[in-house]
Amino acid sequence: MEIFSWNTLIAAVLGIFIGWLIIRNKNTDTSRIVLLNEEEFKNNMRKGQLIDIRKETHYKEGTIKGARNFKPKEMTSKYTKLRRDLPVYLFCNNGRKSKRIAKKLVRDNYKIVYVLKNGYKNLSE
Predict the structure, then answer these.
(1) How many structural domains comprise the chain?
(2) Could you tell me if residue 83 is inside a domain?
(3) Which domain holds residue 59?
(4) What number is the average pLDDT over the span 5-16?
(5) What is the pLDDT of residue 25?
(6) What is the mean pLDDT of the chain?
(7) Phi, psi of 54 (to 5 degrees)
(8) What is the pLDDT of residues 52-76, one digit of tens each?
């Protein structure tokens, strides 16, 4: 009988957690996330805060001039020195991590987040 109780409790907690994740993602205003191709990104990136979220080793090997490097977990920290009222131009290696971080920034009330669609590794110099 005790095993059944633990299994039921684990299933209930897991169900609540999954439900919370679904609701949280539905409440994300994705209209404030804009995917930009390479040309659009290059033409507009100076109009906001340019952020490179790749690993520090990749950042040191080369980045877009003027970009600041943050670890993804630093991006959603209250200690990040990003302004919420200015646009954020975000890029990573392939665009996937940037999209995920963009959703977090929008949930944290950042004005608008622009993401380099295919990431830095596909950027032509």
Answers:
(1) 1
(2) yes
(3) 30-122
(4) 84
(5) 61
(6) 86
(7) -75, 170
(8) 999 999 999 999 999 999 988 887 7
Q: Where are the alpha helices (DSSP H) in the chain?
A: 2-26, 38-44, 56-61, 72-75, 96-107
Please give the average per-residue pLDDT across 7-29, as a whole number. 78
Given this model, what pLDDT does residue 46 score? 93
Sort 55 into a burial class: Cβ within 10 Å, 0-12 / 13-18 / 19+: middle
Report if pTM > 0.85: no
- Any domain includes 73: yes
Question: 65-72: long-range contacts at Cβ-Cβ below 8 A with a sequence spacing of 24 or more?
Answer: 67/91, 72/97, 72/100, 72/101
Structure tokens at 24: 């949280």
Q: For residue 91, what is the domain's CATH number?
A: 3.40.250.10
How many Å apart are CA 33 and CA 36, to the nearest integer? 10
11 inside domain: no
Among residues 89, 94, 82, the alpha carbon closest in space to that of 55 is found at 94
Instruction: Give the length of the chain.
Output: 125
Which amino acid is residue 80, in one-letter code?
Answer: T
117 C-beta neighbours (distance < 10 Å), count: 18
